[in-house]
């Protein structure tokens, strides 16, 4: 059973890693349902406060190569906890965006980071005894991943060995957006938010 769980989890991880390269493609929906269109070469919510620079806009630049492979890293066991803890930016998966200079910053989660967090939540559920109840967060994450993967449907054709879709291949190469650009922008946004918070605190003091 443990082997089966590990296999299923690794397959889920591979599917998601391929799917999330197309995350945040053309437009983003804020809580009020208003779409914010972006430049075709860039992706993200393109709003800023000017001096505070509380925006989230990702210039992805050149594509990068990725080998989709079943690896030992980012596994299910306790020995992988540290790796999973570092898969998100140090401040977490939230960015802060202000519509204009007079508006207060509002928190938003980034879809890619939310997806990765959800994999880790499902991983934690797998580690529990079978008798443990399925948590609400796990149920949320399973459907969230299903919906976001469907939304950005990946059309890459993967070779198989028979008409049932079985395959002994354990890797293939693909081309992705440079996800490190998204991490850099999230860290820049967090630094801007912390700087603004410090200034606000000084004014109140």
Automatic annotation (TrEMBL):
Signal peptide range in chain numbering: 1-25
GO molecular function list: oxidoreductase activity
Alphabetically ordered keywords of this record: Oxidoreductase, Signal
Gene Ontology BP terms: mycotoxin biosynthetic process
Involved pathway(s): Mycotoxin biosynthesis
InterPro entries: UstYa-like
Signal found in the keyword field: yes
Assigned protein family: Belongs to the ustYa family.
Annotated organism of origin: Mycena pura
Protein name in UniProt: Ectomycorrhiza-regulated small secreted protein
């Amino acid at each position: 059973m443990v082997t089966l769980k590990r296999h299923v989890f690794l397959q889920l991880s591979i599917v998601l890693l391929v799917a999330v390269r197309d995350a945040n493609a053309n437009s983003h929906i804020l809580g009020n349902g208003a779409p914010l269109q972006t430049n075709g070469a860039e992706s993200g919510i393109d709003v800023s406060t000017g001096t505070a620079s509380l925006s989230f806009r990702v210039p992805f630049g050149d594509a990068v190569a990725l080998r989709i492979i079943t690896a030992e890293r980012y596994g299910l066991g306790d020995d992988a906890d540290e790796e999973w803890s570092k898969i998100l930016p140090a401040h977490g998966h939230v960015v802060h965006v202000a519509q204009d200079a007079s508006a207060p910053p509002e928190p938003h989660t980034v879809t890619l980071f939310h997806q990765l967090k959800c994999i880790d939540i499902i991983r934690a559920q797998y580690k529990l005894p079978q008798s443990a109840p399925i948590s609400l967060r796990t149920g949320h994450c399973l459907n969230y991943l299903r919906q976001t993967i469907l939304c950005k449907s990946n059309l890459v054709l993967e070779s198989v060995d028979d008409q049932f879709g079985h395959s002994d291949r354990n890797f293939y190469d693909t081309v992705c957006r440079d996800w490190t650009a998204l991490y850099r922008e999230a860290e820049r946004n967090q630094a801007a938010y912390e700087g603004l918070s410090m200034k606000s605190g000084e004014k109140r003091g």
